[in-house]
Design a protein that fits this description.
Elements lengths: L1 E7 L4 H4 L13 H16 L6 E4 L3 H13 L7 E3 L16 H8 L1 H9 L20 H4 L13 H23 L1 E6 L1 H12 L3 H5 L9 E5 L5 E6 L4 H12 L4
Parallel strand pairs: 1-4, 2-3, 2-4
Antiparallel strand pairs: 1-5, 5-6
C-alpha cells in the first residue's frame, strides 16, 4: 500500500486580506506558520514515514513544507519543486478583494471563476509586468503552460497530470510515502483527477489551509481510503466553510 499526503499551505497574507492570489508570490501570516507547524506535528504523531516531497515555485507552499519537515525532524528529505503545482492563475482577478469582486461582477460569475472546472477569469495582458513570462522562475521552462495569463481549474489540472504520470507515481512506487504541499486549486485538481469527480462535484470541494489529507493507494494508484488527518469532523467542516464563504 502506498500513501500520498496532500497539504494546502498555511494561511497566506492574501488569504487573510481575502484577495485572489493565484501566482502572486505572497508570504505566510503568523497564523499560517503555526498551521504549517501543526501539520508537521500531526504527520509525525501519525507515524507516517514520508520519504519524498513536492512543492510549488511559490514561497507560501515552500515555507509550509519547510516548517512541516522541521517539525517532523526530516529536513533531510529530498524536495522537488515544480511550477506545475502552482496555484491556479487568476488572471486579472489577482490582487482583487473577493467581496469587492462580487459587488463588481456578481456572485454567480465570481463563483464560476473560483470553483468551476472550466471557466477562467479574464487574462492578464501580455505586456503587464505581472505576467509570468517576465518572471525569472518560468523563463527557462519550455512549456507555454508555465507562463499563463489566466487559468481555469481544467487548465491547472492538465499541467499537473504530466508531473503525476512522470514523477509522482514513480516516487510513490520507489519510496512508498510521498508528501505534496501545494495550493487550494492544485490540490483540488489532483483530487478531481484521482477520484474522477464530476465538474459538478468539484464545485463543492473546499480545501482548508494546513490540514493533511491522506490517500492510501493500491499498486495501480487507485484510492483505497482517503481522509483528513488530525482534525475533528466539526473543526474540519468549520474550516471548509471559511473557504467556501470568502465571497460572502
Amino acid at each position: 500500500m502506498y500513501k500520498l499526503i496532500l497539504v494546502r499551505h498555511g494561511q497566506s497574507e492574501w488569504n487573510l486580506s481575502n484577495q485572489f492570489t493565484g501566482w502572486t508570490d505572497v508570504d505566510l501570516t503568523p497564523q499560517g506558520v503555526e498551521e504549517a507547524k501543526r501539520a508537521g506535528r500531526i504527520l509525525k504523531e501519525a507515524g507516517l514515514d514520508i520519504r519524498y516531497t513536492y512543492t510549488s515555485y511559490l514561497k507560501r507552499a515552500i515555507k509550509t513544507l519547510n516548517y512541516i519537515l522541521e517539525e517532523m525532524d526530516r529536513m533531510w528529505l529530498p524536495v522537488e519543486k515544480s511550477w506545475r503545482l502552482n496555484e491556479k492563475h487568476y488572471g486579472m482577478l489577482q490582487g482583487q478583494n473577493k467581496q469587492e469582486a462580487v459587488e463588481k461582477f456578481g456572485k454567480e460569475q465570481v463563483m464560476l471563476w473560483r470553483r468551476s472546472y472550466d471557466v477562467a477569469p479574464a487574462p492578464i495582458p501580455d505586456d503587464d509586468p505581472r505576467h509570468p513570462k517576465y518572471d525569472i522562475r518560468y523563463q527557462g521552462v519550455k512549456s507555454r503552460a508555465a507562463r499563463p495569463g489566466t487559468e481555469s481549474l481544467s487548465d491547472a489540472t492538465r499541467r499537473i497530470i504530466p508531473l503525476w504520470n512522470t514523477s509522482i507515481v514513480e516516487n510513490l512506487h520507489q519510496y512508498g510515502q510521498v508528501l505534496i504541499v501545494a495550493h487550494g486549486n492544485s490540490i483540488r485538481g489532483i483530487i478531481k483527477f484521482m477520484k474522477n469527480l464530476s465538474n459538478e462535484e468539484i464545485v463543492k470541494l473546499n480545501i482548508p489551509t494546513g490540514v493533511p489529507y491522506l490517500m492510501e493507494l493500491d499498486e495501480d494508484m487507485q484510492i483505497l481510503k482517503d481522509e483528513y488527518v488530525g482534525v475533528s469532523q466539526d473543526d474540519l467542516e468549520a474550516m471548509q466553510a471559511v473557504v467556501a464563504n470568502q465571497t460572502k
